[in-house]
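Quick note —
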Amino acid sequence: MPFSSADLAAIGLTLRLAGTTMVLLLVLCTPLAWWLAHTPSRWRGPVSAVVALPLVLPPTVIGFYLLVTLGPNGPLGQFMQWLGLPTLPFTFWGLVVGSLIYSLPFAVQPLQHAFEAIGRRPLEAAATLGAGPLDRFFTVALPLARPGFITAAILSFAHTVGEFGVVLMLGGNIPGVTRVVSVQIYDHVEALEYTQAHWLAGGMVLFSFVVLLGLNLTRRKTVSMVQ
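Predicted structure written out below.
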């Protein structure tokens, strides 16, 4: 069998982390993307820059500052201890927090572009028929922005699967708790277990190819439907 029990545990944990992150990002980023697409506020530029920071910052930098902030001596860590809650570093939910920040632009930007592409005319037409703001959002904007949601879901899931620096800094290397596929590959290489590393790394390459191919086909289908 090409995958050991440790490999399968890492794969399962990675899929669980990516799925959880994807769902939370779609829920949390939808109102943010809507605001960025329509607000005239002067804060739009700074907020957009903050959202895009994970695209240019080294993952270890993000992981380090999250570790400091969420740790027992950090502000959020101390607040959680004051509430009687455990701190998040070196836990699964700590990885989720890190993944939410690390994959944030891969969810926000496709949603923002989808909302901007809708334009004002469909919303104005719905308003003339008596639809309120929430009705216009749920019955007009969301269905029209469906391609953006598909892209955001695929990209955020795939990007989370490929994490390394953030999860290693924030979660360490705890089997069954924080050891994801990328860390498992690193462990195999350190132990000179290149055959096992090849199986996992090859799986990651195949997964990435399928994701990019699926995105390309989805975009072509969307363009053909519009035309």
